[in-house]
Amino acid sequence: MTGEHQLSTRRLVVATFGTMMALLLAALDQTIVGTAMPRIVADLKGLDYYAWVTTAYLVTSTVVVPVAGKLGDMFGRKPFLLAGMIGFVAASALCGLSQDMLMLVLFRGLQGLFGGVLFASVFTVIGDLYTPERRSRIQGLFGAVFGLSSVVGPTVGGYLTDNLTWRWVFYVNIPVGVIAVSAVLVALPFVRSKATWRDIDFLGSFLLAAGMVPLLVALSITRDHAWTSWQVLGLLGIAVVMLVAFFFEERRAENPVVPFFLFRNRTYAVSMITAFLTAFGMFGTIIFVPLDFQGVLGVSVANSGLLITPMMLGLIVSSTATGLLMTRIKYYRYLGTLGVLLMMGGMYLLAQITVHSSQFEVTRDIVIIGAGLGVTFPLYINAVQAALPRQYLGVATSQIQFWRNVGGTVSTAIMGSILSRIMPGKITDQINALHLPPQVAGSLSKFSGGSPQALFDPAKLAATRAGLPPQVRPLFDQVITAVKIGLANTLHDLFLIAAGVLVLALIATFFLKEAQLKRGAVQVLEGAAEGEAPVDLEAAG
Prior knowledge:
- The chain is mainly α.
- It has helices at 3-6, 9-44, 50-75, 77-96, 101-129, 132-163, 168-171, 173-187, 202-220, 230-252, 266-296, 301-325, 333-350, 359-387, 393-432, 438-444, 458-466, 473-509, 537-540.
- Helix 3 runs antiparallel to helix 15 (393-432), helix 6 (132-163) packs antiparallel against helix 12 (301-325) and helix 11 packs parallel to helix 13.
- The radius of gyration is 24 Å and the shape is globular.
- The two termini are 23 Å apart.
């Protein structure tokens, strides 16, 4: 008997709604806070900690995802989903009460721990509640919720910051959390397990954290530290030692946090590789497209945020459609191929953006990328859940989120490093090509300095131009155009690099082995996760 049949329709709907609210709670926080950050920095006076507000959340949430996924398999999803929501809401309240940036960074790190628990649990709960055939449709809706949070988050964040205070971007989580906790508490069934705390792989969990924290921090600080600096190399060295130790520990552990033998299953291995590689396209778009809008095309910050919205609308539509199509297409691996092809095409088109391009062209390109990305969200989660025995449901699902987060951090570090190194030279080349008189070039150089920073404040730029002698203004305009062209040329290279990485993801999609979605029901509310017989993973995949 399936979870669907054992639960009344009303209880199933309420449990699904509560789980969706839990996802909205975690996903919305990632977009709503970014809008308020300039106001937060102005109020708490801690510009030096600006990046760490995001980094702290990213590091802790990424590290805890695989651990929470494994513990959910061992002890049931409900207690971890509830603990994640309650802890997340409490940490949100603490963030809102922060009196300085250091406090905010610490509380954001705490919030990330519980956010990781939520991301590890939410998509797995759907695997508990629904049969493989129906869960693909529901996962598509969950992907749409994730995309919707990216659409409404910046708008809600801006409204709360302008009309109340920036602290409400954290306080708003409280009512959402109360609703989600109530629904899950009442409706979600509890799966009992024979596992005890003695079965927890404490050493493996410690080694994973001890390896991933310095790795993610090292990649994050490459924004203002050279890759060859002792800080980056030292952290990477510690990470390598700890992760090697983690690998050998997991090979011998009875209940490993990350069962590496799962990579023998082709569906699982391909899904993890694809999640990691497609993160280059996802984060490359989210982080660097605003530079196109604001720096190259001169769009204001507020309008730039609105123009990103179509990407998530494309994601919502394709995610929902993919969930519906998976059960109707025998070789659904090619949906993933199509999704990655769309992402590659969108990245290639973005690389062609110049100072003469229109806002519509950029919007068109990111809609294409969003549509491709939306295909991959439900596709690989459902494929993995259908390919593996139920006792690995939480591990497998959380690993997709884990590898996507790691891929996002790696891509941001690498592409950010490339940006900072090649952009000054490209801008300088464009300015030198103007052949300005030396005295004029010297007086205008302070407005470029090899950086497009001045482009992101149109009001200040206009005021600077107005303060120049009339005869110098045309030359000033030429310099600004040269800076825009240099920035556009730099982004051209970055987007092509991201498209090149996606070629590897494209190749991987062909190796996916379709797991049967229309098959017998999964035992959801019966059987202990640790008491089930071993399964041949190759046969299961």
